[in-house]
Specification:
Length: 397
Amino acid sequence: MSALFGTYMRDEVAFERGRGMRLFSGEGDEYLDFMSGIGVNALGHNDPQLVAALKEASEKVWHVSNLFTVPEAERLAERLVEGTFADKVFFTNSGTEAIECALKTARRYFHDSGAPEKYEIIAFTGSFHGRTLGAIAAGGNPDYVKGFGPVLEGFKHLAPGDISAVEAAIGPATAAIMIEPIQGEGGVNAVGESFLKGLRELCDKHRLLLILDEVQCGYGRTGKLFAHEWAGIEPDLMAVAKGIGGGFPLGACLAKAEVAKSMVPGTHGSTYGGNPLACAIGNAVLDRILAPGFLEHSDKMGQKLFWHMHQLMQKYPDHVLEVRGKGLMAGMKIFPPVRDFVTRLRDKKLLVAAAGDNVLRLLPPLILTQGDIEEAFEKLGTAFSEYAAENRNGSKD
């Protein structure tokens, strides 16, 4: 019996090495990775540039604390500011910590602006913002808050898509609106660009803050550096993680200067956030993401991925019910139980993830090729063909 907490439904497969789009088990089996550690390994496995950055940084300084200047963090923050809406950056170790920072920053901003009564956040059903008490309260999923005592107050939840309902929910205590441009865990639901624009307009009209959770959909996954760029808007605060470290624990809360100015010494902190090792790797990841042609490649591969999903849906309309997402954050609502189907694909040496609403989630590394896509869909097609045949023959999956 494992000595670990039983909080995960772990597969028995254990991987000992990886290369590019491939993972290799201890038994020597090769798997095509269309999961990338749930959207984390943006550059695949064992990327030479990241390995070189890790080795070089590991021979210098790993940790000094944030009581000292960390040049690697300063450089990464400057580059993120240069390439985004933000003026200020706070580094974390994970996405949920980035969300916590965003929530605290929004509340502190209004406190210091003479409106301490403004603390409430409007969020949306189907969202997932992390596992801390603040993040599960923001997500509002009953399954995640059950058994953990009183839910942190200060959140209203609405179904995404109805801008009139959002405006009607705004009250004297409302401080911000928070949303994932593409809901990952909730079922790979892409929020409409017009809705995102509408939220930005509401925030401007009512002097609220717009918080975007781009932990999963950001960092090149949709073909732009961040998903909100497709809507032509800017948030006031944004949580980033997963792809930012390419597999190394790293996250960030990005903010406009006016919003971040209230976060003075003593208001927030992190022991490991922004450490030299993590930020050295973060800079190496950003080198690749911002290299000429990289985002264009991600966009092109995303279009090819969606073409193949639609082809699969046409061939198996009883089993592939809907195509969702954007770019290389893709999902298919399917008829077989999704977790069983994930196992079926694993047995065919294809790694994918499950999401809410019985959605099969595809989150490949951004370095994938057309050949990788064709190989993956050959496996997917075989799996659906077998499932369809078993159902025709009266077999139970």
